[in-house]
Amino acid sequence: MEFRQLKYFITLAEHLHFSHAAEALSLAPSALSMQLQKLELELGAKLVERTKRSVSLTSAGQLFLIEAKMTLFQLEQAKIVARRAGRGEAGSIQIGYVISAACSGVVQMLLSRYRKAAPLVSVTLLELESPLQVQLLEEGKLDACIVRTVAGDQDRIERVSLGSEATVIAVAKDHPILSNPEIKLKDLENELFIVPQFAGEPGFAKHLAKIGEQAGFTPQIGHQTRDFITALTLVGAGFGIAAVPASVSSLSMPGITYLSLDEVLERSELSILFRRHERSPAIKRLRELAITTPG
User: Fold this and answer.
1) Burial level of 98, CB count in 10 A (0-12/13-18/19+)?
2) Range with the lowest mean pLDDT among 44-58, 61-75, 84-98?
3) Is the alpha carbon torsion for 70, 76, 80, 82 positive or negative?
């Protein structure tokens, strides 16, 4: 059975007149009649009752008409989806992200633009630690990673910046240092810092070290955590202080005050990572939007 035969039958069912249907299809009536006979022979059922004065559908023809229309509709939908997939407007992608990225607003902006540009693409978000994200990206199990620190094989991974933001210092509201009306970066020299840090990669500790260099000291790391949320929880409990991206302060966790120090010049980068030489149109479309998303 050919799809054109379904189209011929549907057109005949709409006109219930061989000459009129044949004219609509740019066929000779005899050619249309031959195609109908082939279709009926293949189905083993009579679809049309034909007399000298009229043409009507049999019971089998009426049921077949419903299915034929559905089949052609699904075929057209399949064509549309295939074309959109080829343009990166359909399919599915999996994106990993660190939880602090959700606070920045940039990720929401990127995903909002992507949803409008590719409404048929199914997007799955997975909150994962940075090292695992990079590993899964290299293995082809993630399509993109949104991270604060960049690691992995730079020959295989491409980094697109999503912008940067200021770094603030999180301290407990009852911390003695708050009694000082003019806190300087140097005043943090003897404090214990709580840092999101993963074994075997630079993590935020490298960022913190650069902040300390600005004031001529090496920050003391008291605790390492898997994310900023855990770090802030420990800060609120009095275990130490933490340098965090400014957007993280929007979490408004109880018992914490955020200090914005003019001396802290080091900014926190947010990046999205892709595999180099990516072939998927849907992922390429995301990359194009990431490049033009203001950070």
Assistant:
1) buried
2) 84-98
3) positive
- Are 62 and 197 within one domain? no
Which alpha helices (DSSP H) does the chain contain, by range? 3-15, 18-25, 29-43, 59-86, 106-117, 130-138, 203-215, 228-236, 281-292
Radius of gyration of the chain (CA): 32
| Last residue of one domain, picked from the residues 86, 119, 150 | 86
* Tens of pLDDT, residues 87-118: 766 688 999 998 888 888 888 999 999 999 98
d(CA 208, CA 245): 11
**Residue that is last in its domain, among 86, 118, 137:** 86
What is the value of pTM for the model shown?
0.69
CATH code of the domain in which 62 resides: 1.10.10.10
**Cα separation of 48 and 188, whole Å?**
90
Predicted local confidence at residue 259, as pLDDT: 95
Same domain, 80 and 118: no
CA atoms within 13 A on the CB side of 202: 12
For residue 287, give both structure tokens. Answer: 């990359």
Cα–Cα distance for residue pair 271/159, rounded to 1 Å? 6
Residue 128 contacts residue 136 (beta carbons within 8 Å): yes
pLDDT score at 283 = 93
Is the pLDDT at 201 greater than 80? The verdict is: no
